[in-house]
Amino acid sequence: MSTTGKLLYTAKTRTTHGRENGIARSSDGHLDIRLGAPGSVRIGTNPEQLFAVAWSACFETAIVQVARKQKIALPASSAIEAEVDLRLENDSYFIGARLKVSLPGVDRMVAQALVNEAHQICAYSKATRGNIDVTISLI
């Protein structure tokens, strides 16, 4: 882990009882959720949903930064649909992800260039690059 660069933020959480019957809370109290396994009847979210939300939020912010730098106006209806898969093979778990980016009204070539550059600067894209199967597409 690199310790260079300006530290902007450190998220602090505490999780007890894991993904199936867990509780997760942030140190500042803004996050206070129950966890449940995917497909469970228990009310709660799961780590894959949280990862999908976190990555899509980061990725959309990266698109905004790239567009602002290039003086490209983005539509208010921009959105990202994120899908994170939890898979099991040979008793080993792994994840994969798909990001579907919607930039209505933006020329397709311009939109693709924004997505490509955003994928280079997004912290979650950097963290997953080469580690999981990722597909990013314009819809």
TrEMBL record:
Gene field: ohr
Name by which UniProt lists this protein: Organic hydroperoxide resistance protein
Protein species of origin: Mesorhizobium escarrei
Coiled-coil annotated residue ranges, if any: none
Family: Belongs to the OsmC/Ohr family.
InterPro entries: KH_dom-like_a/b, OHR, OsmC/Ohr_fam, OsmC/Ohrsf
The organism's place on the tree of life at top rank: Bacteria
